[in-house]
Each structure stands twice: as C-alpha cells, then as structure tokens.
Amino acid sequence: MILLKNGDLIDGTGSAPRRADVLIEGTMIQDVGTLDHVPDAEVVDCQGLAICPGFIDVHSHGDLEALQHRDEKICQGVTTEVVGNCGFSLFPNLPLENLVPSFEIFKDREGRQWDDAESYFDDIEKQRSHTHLAALTGHSSLRAHVTGMRADKLEGATLRQAESVLTNCMEQGSIGLSTGLNEVPSSYGDLDELVKLCGIVRRYDGFYTSHLRDYKFHIVEAVEEALEIGRRTGVPVQLSHLQTVGRKNWDKMDKILDLVDRAVNDGVDVGIDAYPYLAGSCNLTQFLPVWALEGGTDALLERLTNVDTYRQIATETEENMSNDWEDILLCTVPGQGNLIGQTVRDIAESRKNVGVDTALDLLIESNGRLQVISFNQSEENLRKVLSHPRTAVITDGLVVEGKSHPRTFGTYPKFFGEYVRDKGWMALEEAVWKATGLPAQRFGLAGRGIAAAGNWADLVVFSPEKIGTHATYENPDLAPEGIEYVIVNGHWALRHGIPTEGLAGTALRHRA
Ligand SMILES: [Zn+2]
Question: Residue 456 needs a FRET pair 20 to 30 A away by CA distance; which of 335, 350, 376, 426 works?
C-alpha cells in the first residue's frame, strides 16, 4: 500500500483543490480523505504538492516509443496515451516499400509488421510499457494496407476490404479511426468514404479523430467536413491539434469555434485537442500538393527530376504557403546534420536561391526525409483554443532523428507552468481537468482520469510552483521540472523525478 499524505488533491473533475490523503492498494485507489493510521503503508509526504490523476495524452504518436520504453512521456506525468493519430497506426500491416515520407515516423519499426490491432496490443503486453495505451486505426495505414499509395477512390472490392479490415480492428479493441486528410494516402479519401468507414466505428461505439483536410486557407470547409461526418453517422468527432496555420488565416479561429459550438447545440458530439506551442512539426511533404506524392517517395523524387513537374510542384507549393520560409526550421536532414536548426530562408540565402526551390532541393537531397518545425499560429488563438471548454491538452509529440519538437518532452510542464500559473489563462483545477477527466470521459476510458476511491491508481504528484520546462526548439530534449512522482496502476513509474523500471502500463482495448 502507498499513502500519499498531506497533499492538495485536484481530482480531475474540475473541482477546486482540497486537502486530502490518497491510499493506494494494489492497482486501485482504496480511499481518499483524512487517513491517519494505515499500518503497512509506505507513507509519502506530499506537503505543498498537488496530487492529481495521471495525464491522458489522447494524441501522442507514441506508437513505437512506448514499445521502446522511452521515458519522455512518463517524465511529464502522462499515464495513458492514445496512439495511431493523424491517420498513422502500426496496424494493419504496412507495405515495406513505396510509402510516402510521412510514414518515416515509423522507420524504427525496422520491417516489423503488426497484422491487426490484436497483434499490437499483444506486443504491448509482451514488451510492457510505461503508460497505458489505447489505439486508433489510422486511415492512411488502412489505405496503405489495401491500395498502397494509389490515389483512386475506394469502391467495390477495395472499399469492402477496407471496411472488413477496419471492422476486424474495431472487434479487437481499436478505439476508433483517425484520419490525416492533408497527407497521402488519407487525403485520397472523400467524404463518402469517410462516412462509410465512420459508420463502422459508430457501430462499435468508437471515436473519429480528424487531422483536418486543411489548416490553412480552407480550414473552415475542413472543419465543416469533419462536423458533417458526425452529423451523418452520429460518431463522436475529435478535431485534432486545432489551430489556424499562418498569419493570413489567424482571423478564422473565431468562426471555427463558433461552428463547433453550433454543432454541439445541434447534438453533434464534438471534441477538440491542442498542444501548448505556437509551432507545429511535420514532414516537409505536407506543404506539397497531394498529387505530387501519389505512388510514394520514389515517385515523388522521380517527379522532381523532371523540370516541368518540378516547376509545377514549386508553383502550387508556393501558392499554398500561409507562412514564410523563415518560419520553417529544419529538424531532420539526413546527411546534412549541419543544416539542422537553420530555416529554409537561411539556406536559400546562402545558396542564393528562392525559398520554395531550396525546400524542394533539400527534399531531394534528403531522399524525402525532411522533418521541419513550422511556426504557425498566434498566442491569442492558442489561448482561445486551450480555453475552450471542449479542448483537451495533448503532446502530439514523437521523437525524430535530429531535433524533435520540444512538445515531445515539455508539453504538460509548459502548459501548467507558463500558461496556467504564469499567464493565468485558467484555474489550476480547470487545467487539470483538461489533462485528465475531460480526455478520459471523451474517449470512454472507464475508471481513469478522476482520482477517486475505486478508480485505477494512475496519479501524478507535482509542485504547482515549480512545474515547468527549459525545453526549447534549439534544445528540446530536457527533462521537466517540478514533477515529483508518477504512479501507474498502483506502481511507481517516477520517484523524485527519476523514472523507474515499473513498466506497469497496459493495453486498453476498447469494448462497445
Ligand atoms: Zn496530425
């Protein structure tokens, strides 16, 4: 037994902090209140510290990192992750060749394959994990499995195959479907296809998470498309990492949040998630027109060798830019590590070339494996999104070769330290709710997200005064400050800020 004594309990419901002790027995929270005489319990003094449920990161991209026992999420206080985001999941099994560069996020899988959701869950149980994992089925992965990187519509036999594979994954406990509609091959799916697939997800009481078809000039239409899928199928819709990209689109945020509120009023079940940073991260190919990526990386590189096609891709890429090349920072450049940390504009100037051509040349030189950080949004819009009552806080953070985005290491400490404590954007209990009770309720994670007797003992103990991060875009991989203890299913995962080998995370299979 573990007794957390003298702390301020912030229980994850949004209620104000209260003085309470927490008793853990086995994997569960036994009791909450004033608990004095508990023989045999290990007593931990939590004077001056907040005790709250473990953070639930519903958009983590930690599919592989969890299996590798990486500790950047547990060190932030994350005890549950939802993986398979933005259309990319490790199952159903992916072709080994002719993928687009965005699948590079899974390059460390080194040819391993997971046939279906069950084989992924089995692997988590066999290899163990710091955190609990629920898994979405990625639409790009599903399409890659069925028709590779082809741009054609799924219909007839291919549609039936996709439906059958998705049904199987849902039967096995996948929590829903994720799309990445501005990335190939998910982008090749139209509204009709998504409505059909989400109909299956709805039958299993699952969730639909949408990395939108556009976050720039057409974001309003993209949000309307996601909401329409909810209207037509009744599936709960999650708008992933909501933001409007580029100064020219910053004024669209009010309209988008208004659309969400109106859809909720009409009975559509809508949720939002956001990471607390102004910059995003992606492969540079996300800036290219989607036709340029049909057939995969080799086909793209081949197209870029033709002068006319290169010009066409350059023109369309430039037309669709909503920020500037000086806003695009390189973080993975295979073979040219010296360029990491420079902007595309810096390199363009040194090469005496224009930004878009420099970007495409760098893409060729790195064989398509060009990961960038892109400064996208305004702090005012970030405040509006994070403050919206339906927004959960996420990391969206994975580890890449070169420099990873600092969100991978510092999301929750930055949120609680900078935006909640220092800037006062919301009360601490509301912030905790956005990282715990809200995402648990949203994704049907029973017995988690609220610190109460009878629930699973997933807990974080941190100092509201000290919590923070020094992780920056230049120096991302720094451990957080102020997070003292993390407990997963009653086992120590972090003590005095140091991760343990507890590995008490479990596979969370979704059951209708
Ligand atoms: Zn995404």
Answer: 426
466 part of a folded domain: no
Judgement on whether residues 297 and 324 belong to the same structural domain of the protein: yes
Listed residue (13, 14, 188) closest to 87, CA to CA? 188
Do 342 and 365 lie in one domain? The reply is yes
140/215 same-domain check? yes
Q: How far is the CA of 240 from the centre of ligand 1 (A)?
A: 6
Number of DSSP helices (H) and strands (E) in the chain, helices first: 15, 22
Q: How many domains does the chain have?
A: 2
Tell me which residue of 381, 387, 465 sits closest to 421, measured CA to CA: 465
Q: Which of these three, 321, 354, 375, is where a domain ends? A: 375
Q: Tell me how far the alpha carbon of residue 60 lies from the centroid of ligand 1, in angstroms.
A: 10
Report CA(211)–ligand 1 centroid distance (Å): 5
- Boundary of a domain, candidates 424, 444, 464: 444
Q: Does residue 8 fall inside a structural domain?
A: no
Residue 123 in tokens = 């692997």
Q: How far is it, in rounded angstroms, from Cα 467 to Cα 354?
A: 43
Dist. CA 280 → ligand 1 center (Å): 9
In a domain, 388, yes or no: yes
CA of 274 to the centre of ligand 1 (A): 10
CATH number, domain with residue 158 = 3.20.20.140
Distance 180 CA to ligand 1 centre (A): 6
Same domain, 382 and 237: yes
Residue 11 belongs to some domain of the structure: no
Smallest Cα–Cα separation from 82: which of 15, 47, 131?
131
Average pLDDT score over residue span 351-362: 97
CA of 118 to the centre of ligand 1 (A): 24
CA 123 – ligand 1 centroid, Å: 24
| Residue type (1 letter), 16 | A
Kindly give the distance from the C-alpha atom of residue 239 to the centroid of ligand 1, in angstroms, as a whole number.
10
- Residue 418 and residue 468 in contact, taking contact as beta carbons nearer than 8 Å: yes
Cα separation, 420 vs 21, in Å, equals 24
The rounded Å distance from CA 59 to ligand 1 centre is: 8
Name the pTM for this structure: 0.97
What are the pLDDT digits (tens) for 262-317?
999 999 999 999 999 999 999 999 999 999 999 999 999 999 999 999 999 999 99
Same structural domain for residues 301 and 331? yes
pLDDT value, residue 429: 98
Domain of 421, in residue numbers? 55-282+376-444
Residue 203 CA, ligand 1 centroid: distance in Å: 25
Residues 130, 133, 135, CA angle at the centre, nearest 5°?
150
Averaged over 55-68, what is the pLDDT? 97
Ligand 1 midpoint to CA 54 (Å): 23
CA of 353 to the centre of ligand 1 (A): 30
